[in-house]
Amino acid sequence: MNIKNLIKQERLYLDGGTGTVLQSMGLPNGTPPEMWNLQNPEAVVSLHRSYFESGSNIVATNTFGVNCKKYENYKELISAAVKCAKKAREGMNGDRFIALDIGPTGHLLKPLGDMDFEEAVDIFSATVKEGVKCGVDLILIETMNDSLETKAAVIAAKENSDLPIFVTNVYDESGKLMTGASPMAMIALLEGLGVDAIGMNCSLGPDKMIPIVEEFAKYSSTPIIVKPNAGLPVVKNGVTTFDKSAEEFSDICATLAKMGAGILGGCCGTTPEYIKLLVEKTRDLPVNLPERKNITAVSSFTHAVVIGEKPTLIGERINPTGKSKLKEALRNSDMGYILSKAVKQEEKKVDILDVNVGLPEIDEASMMKRAVEEIQAVTDLPLQIDSSNPKVLEGAMRIYNGKPLINSVNGTEESMSAVLPLVEKYGGTLIALTLDEKGIPTTAKERLAVAEKIAERAKTYGIEKKDIIVDPLALTVSSDKDSARVTLDAIKLLRQNGFYTSLGVSNISFGLPSRETINSAFFTMALENGLNCAIMNPFSKGMMDSYYAFCALCGMDESFENYIGYVQSQEAVVSSVTDQKADDLEGAIVKGLREKSREIAKKLLQSEKPLDVINDRIIPALGIVGDGFEKGKIFLPQLLMSAESASGAFEEIKERMPKNEIDTSKKVILATVKGDIHDIGKNILKVLLESYGFVVYDLGRDVSPDVILKEANQKNCDLIGLSALMTTTVPAMEQTIQLLRSQRPSARVMVGGAVLNEEYAKMIKADFYGKDAMEAVKIAKEFYNS
Amino acid sequence: MAEYFAIDKEKITVDNGEIKRRLSLSRDFDVSVFDGMLERVLSEITPKCCYIKTNVSVCGKQVDLGFAKVESSALAKNLSGCKDAFVFAVTLGHSVDRMLSRLSRLSPAEFFVCDGICSALAENVCDEAEKVIKGNLDCKPRFSPGYGDLDISVQRDVLTSLNAEKLLGITLTDSNLMIPQKSITAVVGIRN
Fold first, then answer.
1. Contacts of B176 in chain A (CB under 8 A)
2. DSSP-assigned states of every residue in chain B
3. What is the DSSP string of A680-700?
4. Alpha-carbon gap, residue A635 to A628, rounded angstroms
5. C-alpha pair distances (Å), A701 with each of A321, A465, B101
6. What pLDDT, in 10s, does the model give residues A74-91?
């Protein structure tokens, strides 16, 4: 029978430990188990056979550590492994399946590690292709302790086979994955990807898995897999044993089965005897499969956000429409600005962040990918990927670490046929706009009809109604006085018909004065009619007042904790602003007070000329700090804080300076070279250079020579700073310099980093050597003065 | 085969001198200004250790660690007279890496301070781990890959012999950097 159907009707049994059993059969310590597929296949056949005979329905091929990056002969190993499993299956009756076992690559993905997402997908794809060729029945992705790597493996499986996919992750004692994901986050991610069975293996014994299985039973609609270790490892005289006997193990697993685990097996330390007892004790228990849950959720790499009765706030500030500073940041690829917007909204306690980088003059697809990666490196809020271009959505949905919110699909044929397949492939909760080829309907009933049309079509892609949130569109009242009424009625009607709803709330007031007044009132009215998600400005006091008051009034804020906290924080902000002395910018910079510097600069610019503030206040303050640093009275942390404060003040000034007065001629490109991921020194230098008014193009870390050359040509910049912290990466520095010499002879290179000295710098033919950041700033200044 | 244990945060002694060294501060600098950052770091770390005992033998510059053979006069000197040694790995965990990744993008100043504190703490965690591993044994000072002329390329063999990927979640980048970055491996020779 078909596995996908079987798991929905019956209990199935996986196998037990492989490595530990093979070791007991003589596998030498230090020899990877997969080697025996070639060196001692009889032992591997015997292993699989004993699990089949103990009652396992599914054995996993002995390929856990096999991938094309580790082994050149990976195809041979996989083929041999499948052969062993098939041999073991010969003559066995009943439902017996062979799963292709895929373990982690051994490399953590960026941004924490150095492996590219696509490289991981390629590695897993090679394994899947070979396994399919050899004739496995399903794919088992196991022992994954990173959500992003799990996603890469699942995508590889989906792109290269039609076989059922089982996924088990490693949960540690804290009940989360090593890189932070909760069970709810993993369930959201994996169900979005359409995986057939999900659960946990390794690290914990069955007793410690109880609370995690409880979570899965509560939130999963998908069959649940448990594959515990035989308890905790105990090392005595260099020998590892596990502390749960087969009896104890199987007893506790019976509890897990009663709780809802339908696919059971064992991991490290378990043997065929464990599986035999496990089968005996659970075989006759009534099958307890998870019910379909009606949960609407999105997730990041740590947690899930559930959409429900309590309104969800989606911060809208990362959207270039009407924001000239953001537009400029996008044109200059100034990630720092975008990230600060993300963090500031996070501080306002939004639940989800909207990310929209739609600007016609930039490469939106690559900017969106970059923005999603970078934003996920600074915040663990789930993201709303927002674009009208399906290609842009696709690139970002592929690499997003979690289950994203997608804005948007609409009722046109073009949109549905482009966007729905993306959600089927990558998972996501979808915002559906109630417009189609006929335009935007003028009645609530007609908007509901569009929503139902989209939901019907989405069903054909396997997308359930619960994963669609309908946006009935808030059109401005200034051009149609009935539009607010229609939208509110639409929200009510949609909720009555089983749809969750979302709105870009502030659209309602476009064209009117004092927009916040209208927005706040409309927000409350919409919430009262059942609005679930609001795309809004978390810095708007009026909107936030409405939100907190509404929640408090509707019993969604027990003991008014959130409301009181919110009100008290408002009072704190007011008192801090009135505390400042307007003329103490120098003091604020010297003391390294970033926010204060900004505020004071803002005030000063009301009465003083921008250039005067720079030359009479900021530069002298930096002089004091730089001087103190060289004399050993002020130290690097303080230098940095002061530089950041000066930068903050500088940004306020740049906003008020007429464009032609801003000096953009002093440019510097900074990069940490290929193979090196240390960037403290480079980041310090960046801050200092910016505080002195340089325009810095920061290419980040692990940057290859041709990328640096490209940037130098694109930005027409002839001063390049290279940083390396490891002796092994100095050659990459040398290569970069050689490339620049031959392709852009006008370029001058300064080098720095803990591993370098004057001698090395000369050896690799650098133009300048900066022994520390201040030295490098001097070099940059002199470069542009000569 | 490698033994594993979590390190009790309460037992970690924070060495202010180490912090000052990492942050290029003078000896009389008052590090209490960083107390807030230190607290944040301490709440994020999940310090753990795994170790094995191995036979070692030294012949000139050649050192046989059992699971690997290396050429290093510095290590040879450190292990001279030892018949066996402990080899261990400690890590502060992945949460700290994420914190650093975030700070590096938002505030180089905070990142610099946090990074220095984390590196100092990693050494202090090493100190505590060593105490647990050594027990009453008299041992040589710990020696890590990358010290002196001991090439960092031995790191891969060290981590494999410790099963560090499974036990501590430590992986290596293509240029032999450990992830999580605040991880340390070392050899501790046991005096005869």
1. 728
2. --EEEEPPGGGPPP-HHHHHHHTT--TT--GGGGHHHHHHHHHH---EEEEEEEE-EEETTEEE-SS-EEE-HHHHHHTTT-SEEEEEEEE--HHHHHHHHHHHHH-HHHHHHHHHHHHHHHHHHHHHHHHHHHTT--BPPPB-TTSTT--GGGHHHHHHHHTHHHHH--EE-TTS-EESSSEEEEEEEEP-
3. HHHHHHHHHHHHTT-EEEE--
4. 8
5. 31, 43, 12
6. 999 999 999 999 999 999
Which residues of B are less than 8 Å from A240 in CB distance? 1
Cα distance between residue A420 and residue A415, in whole Å: 8
Angle, in degrees to the nearest 10, between helices A636-656 and B108-134: 150
Q: Which residue of A has its CA nearest to B67?
A: A30
Q: What is the pLDDT of residues A191-207, one digit of tens each?
A: 999 999 999 999 999 99
DSSP type of residue A259: H
Q: Rounded mean pLDDT of A45-60?
A: 97
Contact A340 B106 (CB under 8 A): yes
pTM, 2 dp: 0.87
Of B25, B105, B175, the CB nearest to A729: B175
What is the per-residue pLDDT for B74? Answer: 95
Per-residue b/e over A31-46, b at no fewer than 16 CB within 10 Å? ebbbbbbeebbebbbb
Contact B106 A343 (CB under 8 A): yes
Interval A696-714 mean pLDDT: 92
Mean pLDDT confidence for A694-715:
91
Averaged over A204-211, what is the pLDDT? 96
Question: A675 in helix, strand or coil?
Answer: coil
Contact B53 A686 (CB under 8 A): no
**Residue A700 backbone dihedrals phi, psi, to 5 degrees:** 90, -150
**What confidence tens digit (pLDDT) does each residue in B115-171 have?**
999 999 999 999 999 999 999 999 999 999 989 999 999 999 999 999 999 899 999
Q: What average pLDDT does the segment A711-728 reach?
A: 89
For residues A550, A554, A558 and A564, what is the CA-based torsion angle, rounded to 10 degrees? 20
CA A117/CA A618 separation, integer angstroms: 43
Distance from CA of B60 to the nearest CA of A (A): 26
CB contact under 8 A, A636 and B112: yes
| Chain B residue whose CA is closest to A32 | B160
How close A1 gets to chain B, by Cα (Å)?
36
Angle (CA) A186-A192-A195 rounded to 5° is 80
Q: Does A679 sit within 8 Å of B104, measured CB to CB?
A: yes
The Cα–Cα gap between A721 and A730 comes to: 14
Q: Calculate the CA dihedral of residues A618, A621, A626, A631 and round it to 10 degrees.
A: 170
Contact flag A680-B111 (C-beta cutoff 8 Å) = yes
- In chain B, the residue whose alpha carbon lies closest to the alpha carbon of A109 is B173
Chain-chain contact of A379 with B179 (C-beta, under 8 angstroms): no
Contact A34, A65 (CB under 8 A): yes
pLDDT over 80 (residue A334): yes
Residue A20, pLDDT above cutoff 50 = yes
Question: Which residue(s) pair with B184 in the sheet?
Answer: B90
Q: Is the pLDDT of residue B52 over 80?
A: yes
Q: Looking at beta carbons, which pairs linking A91-94 to residues 24 or more positions away fall under 8 Å?
A: A92/A52, A92/A53, A94/A57
Cβ pair A365, B92 in contact under 8 A: no
Q: Which residues of A touch B179 (CB under 8 A)?
A: 108, 112-114
Whole-angstrom distance, CA of residue A122 vs CA of residue A153: 9
Kindly tell me if the per-residue pLDDT of A574 is higher than 70: no
Amino acid sitting at position A52: F
Cβ–Cβ < 8 Å for B1, B7: no
In DSSP terms, which residues pair with A469 in a beta bridge? Answer: A431, A500
Looking at residue A676, its pLDDT comes to: 79
Structure confidence by residue, pLDDT tens digits, A29-45 = 878 999 999 999 999 99
